[in-house]
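Hi X.,

You mentioned you wanted examples for the new student's onboarding notes, showing what a folding record looks like when two proteins sit in one file. Here is a clean example. The first protein comes first, with its sequence line followed by its structure tokens.
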Amino acid sequence: WLVYAVQGYDAIRDTLSAADRRSIDERLFRPMAKFLVGTPANFDLIHNHATWAAAGVGMTGYVLRDRGFVDQALLGSQRDGKSGFLRQIDQLFSPDGYYTEGPYYQRYALGPFELFARVIERNEPRRHIFDHHGGALLKAVDAIIQQSYAGLLLPLNDAIKDKGLDSEEIVAAVAIAYARTHDPGLLDIARRQNRTVLTIDGLAVAEGLQARLDQPFDFRPLLLRDGPQGERGGLALLRTGGEDGTLAALKATAQGMGHGHFDRLNWLFYDNGNEIVRDYGSARFLNINAKHGGIYLEENTTWAKQTIAHNTLTVDSRSQFAGKLADAEQWHPDVLLFDVAAGGQIAMARMAHAWEGVVATRTLALLEHADLAGPVVVDLLRVDAARAAQFDLPLHFNGQIIDTGFAATHYQAQRPVLGDAAGYQHLWVDAVAPASLEARSLTWLTAGRFYTYRFAASEPSQALLVESGAHDPEFNLRREQALIRRVSGAHGVSFAAVLEPHGRYDGTAETVTGDVGRIQSLTIDRGDDGDVVTLTLASGKVIALAIAREPAANATHDLEAHGRHLEWTGPYLRKDY
């Protein structure tokens, strides 16, 4: 309230009588600012709540010409620099502009960060606030746009899935950033937003659009590092085809504080303007009073934050870090590789400490080939464990199943529940295929395009088809389906898969083309030195992707894969036959 109200007051304050100004200054805005500063448990946090408080107090200080309020806003209630707005920029943003709570809360926090920074710049230009922490606040505007697809933000952590680039905070941030950078790509975003703010920055946007200076925004492959120095993992965006082309995202970020989910090494996939491999986001119906007043629901804890609700590894039916926030905040994944080359993009990250004695390394690659209809995603998750365990790897997919591609036992009369805790209690079991070393496939249809997911493992694995909604008497959960690959009693396993978009279904014309993919088979070879995923295409061509277990740049590697001997130096090798 204070952030917005004091801006309005500043706009009309000089039109008021001296008595009215004094009354409003001393009976409204000054007491409000004192109240916020006087609650250090909130005001001195490194958190978006404290950012809103600091921005409101600092703006009030500038309007009332109260240097004490300004200094407390910038440096914390004790003015020692251990908290406050400057410290928040340093700690909450990475050098790449990634915000630690994820894109949904980056959108929210951009409001006070960008608005207050603009006020600081106007009142104290010598601070060069937009250069602070390596220009993080301007980088953050590019970063939030990059973390979107078809206008909507990636639903990482506690995210409501209908928030997009047209949110008011991003509208203001785009105007502020454009007025400082004159980046024509930001005008492209402003044009899509179809509105701007009534400020001098918004005027610059309007004039730029009127002069047709806008150019397409550069949606590009990108690694957004997490952590104040970029040292706490990151979010890898493998992308081609622009805003609504193909996007594979590997989430290897830190926990993200209280709004973070227990989903290290989660991945998402978007194609043809649609969410294909999806994330649940948050269990919340914002401002819908019938759903507990619109707050986060109990199921946000029992389902949405739990590991099995995401496309990543679960061990012994327990979530990462046993679902304990304090433990999860201590550890982060390590990004081992991010590379963009002709015909392919690849990212690799490693996670330890989520379960005792278990190390997981995930590699995601977006590959192109002349004999394929378009880019495909190769996914390799290597698990090394000090003890035998059960490893579950879900794929939460969006679409209508066309072909399961494997025999399974179907529960037609009564659906069992998968488990009793850690999110498993919310999953109905529809079908189970027995453990096998054979590669399998699942094909579904989304918005007129087919998607075939071929998968295999180095150990015998079951395939379970499940759906959310069990133990949900108030119908708070969306009914969404998933495929779970399960390996039991192994000391380690390598899960491999390829997701291939193909073909077209036209319901109006009643035509189907390309309903069978161009990838004929997939194999996985696991060795001490690494793994090899081999794709055989219908044309007879072969793509082999070899991933080193230890991806040092100068290390040499030697693996056998289905009669082929592969030698290479560095993290990975792609070999086409």
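Then the second protein repeats the pattern, sequence line and then tokens:
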Amino acid sequence: MDQNTREIKTHCSYMDHGGCGLIVTVRDGSIVKVKGDPDGWLNQGYVCPKGLASPKRLDHPQRLRHPLRRVGERGSGQWERISWDQALEEISTRLDEIRQRDGARSVAFGLGMPKGLDHFGQIRLANTFGSPNLVASQDVCHAPREITGVHTCGFYPVVDFKHPSELVVLWASAVTNTNEEGGICSQLLKQVGQGTKLMVIDPYRSSLADKAELWLPLRPGSDAALALGMINVIITEKLYDAEFVEQHTHGFAELAAQAADYPPERVAAITWLEPEQIRRAARLYASAKPAALAWGNPIEHTNNAFHAARGLVCLMALSGNLDVMGGNICPLEPKIAGLGPYVRADLVPDKRKQMLSAAHGVIPRFMTIPPAFLRRAILEGEPYPVKGFFSMDTNPLMVWADSRLTKRALESLEFFACAELFMTPSAALADVVLPAAASLEFDDIGHYGIGHGFILARPHVVEPPEECRAPMQICCDLGRRLAGEELWPEDYHDMLDMVLEPSGVSWEEFVERGHLQGPQKFRKYAEKGFRTPTGKVELLLSTADKFGLPPLPAWTGFPEETGEEFPLVLTGRKNKVALHSSYRWVEELRKQNPEPITELNPADAARLGIAEGDQVRVSTKQGSIVQKAKLNERVRQGVVYAEHGWWFPEETDADPLGGWERANFNLLTSAAKLGKEFGTPNMAAIPCKVEKAA
């Protein structure tokens, strides 16, 4: 290796939740190779196609490289280049004008899925500005599992792939396609190779389902019913962990009475399964010691998200698999900064009462705003008007339910600014767009605040373009103008040091180590009980009346039933080479997924006169889109998978919004009916029809 070439260890990020250790080869300031780090703490050498292609974002000719200000109509694609000082001054002035006139709560801040410290930088920015409104996608990702876990057992039950399990249940979790929150598939595959059994619960027969002891192709959206059916069998056949249930659960008798209404025969009709499949699944899970349940975020894509998550936590408790090695654990964090002080929660002490969600009665401890509530505030002034919005790393027009409603809301804002890597359809509707640096171009900390008991070092490997700034630096620059220099450092690296300060580990030492992990302790409940009002796992919620919550998990029916006009069940599908709507413009990834695909079973296709490769129109009550048909026997009959997040960056010269209406899955979804606990819209289990496109 010559003197101008060096290898740098870092962690993948922004291509997914991240976590794969990488070895990046840099020559003369440019990346020439990326490979998985064999010593990577989570991945042991594995890296997905997105990680391998991640450097291709950096030198893309259409990447945003300068601050821009809109000069034409919103969405017209007419911009002028301005300086950073001009851009920051305009954003801070316009947002402050709204604050002075209508109050800080009339400005909202937004972001996509948590990717790094920028998530908490945005929360801090909102808090220091004085706004209680941080809008995120957590209503359909992570929060229903996390917050439901906190209310039921006092913590978020994290799947433990680090220690051996007798059985792993993949419940709506396609870990070989999407590595959820640090659950890298290489850890699971290693276990399977060493004899760990698999149960897969998913209407799609994946390659892991081929290896499984049992595959349950349930109807999309019926997760809560299946959980109750399994609970019925476990209790009826006395398969539960009697000692754990007696000593550490609250409300067993009430749950048993509730589950009695869900015998396998009734549940089979709801889930499209056979009664014996449900019995076998319950017996397999309850008898395995330990058993880990990896629950993916598709269970959070319907109005029934709370009941589904409640049912699964109850299953973990009944089987004695909570906080045990190889089960679903309660990780302890390393000595790092607490979230409250880091985001300056003290500056908005009445946040719970002031945030938009308060008027909608969401579950306590859910502190981000569901997008549906933001749009009501913008368009209807309910419960109060929102006039300004600043977002980072998110493309609402493509990823929020009901895209036309989102477009109306963004167009109705008095002022909208964002920071982005590329001119997305949402950014095209903004007043000011800031050019962000990409991961691999700035220092960052991964998995802070996610509740997995570790953080990862993400040192930069190359420098960003001259005018592209790290997302955390953008937060600092705006924070100093909007909230004062005493609340924000001049250099974002001070924000990294704040996280590490309690550990006594410097940034340089952290980079050398690669990660920090909290102490490994299991069965902590034996000494301290569970962090709930009763000190036990609350199968029956003791706070149900106080917070207006259902006390027991239940099946409340599908949000919409299929019928003659819409006989099939639609659900979304993420492609393993895409991250929602991101990176459709990276050529290496686009070649692997060149156009939007709708998958359906050959038997359904034959009945509809659809052949492989046909352009098909997928329609729901909400709208219709066109995608390319793929016939796949792995999709169960009656189910349709349409790809999520599609737009066409190559068309932005002619259409600044990149053909956002043609194949966008969220033209098929609605935000009219929401789950009360999290404001979750119905983004799966949607009645649909499929026909050849004209």
